[in-house]
Amino acid sequence: MKVLLVGDTHGDAKFISSINRLAKTHGVHYVIQLGDFGYDFSPSVLTSIRTWLDADERRRWLWLDGNHDQHDYIRSEICKGKHPKKPVKHFHDRMFYCPRGSTLKIGDKTVLFLGGAVSVDFHRRQQGV
User: What's the predicted TM-score (pTM) here?
Assistant: First the structure.
């Protein structure tokens, strides 16, 4: 089983499409996005991921939030106001948001999803924007 780790896609549909092509070329079964994933969860990003997932039922896309993700959206729309302890399915049957502190069994390994550091540019930003 092959796993591809990626980070900081920031909702860039072209970048995500190139990740999907790379994953397909190398027979990757799991893409794990390590933060700063969706940004605004645009339809073009989600379509690109759905297309890749639909091409092979063994494929999975997992992601955890980063400091530049839309946390209000994640809490309200994906987590429905709860703090799940396990990955949450959304947008596709094989796409999961992995909350901080959640675990998931991949093959014979257990993966623990943890958050990262605060933004180094937080003093120049407005919270939630």
Answer: 0.85
| Cα angle 20-2-15, degrees, rounded to a multiple of 5 | 20
Q: How far apart are CA 110 and CA 82, in angstroms?
A: 23
Taking only the tens place, the pLDDT of each residue in 46-100 is 888 888 889 889 899 999 998 888 888 889 989 999 989 999 998 899 999 999 9
Mapping DSSP onto H, E and C, the string for the chain reads CCEEEECCCCCCHHHHHHHHHHHHHCCCCEEEEECCCCCCCCHHHHHHHHHHHHCCCCCEEEEECCCCCCHHHHHHHHCCCCCCCCCEEECEEEEEECCCCCEEEECCEEEECCCCCCCCCHHHCCCCC
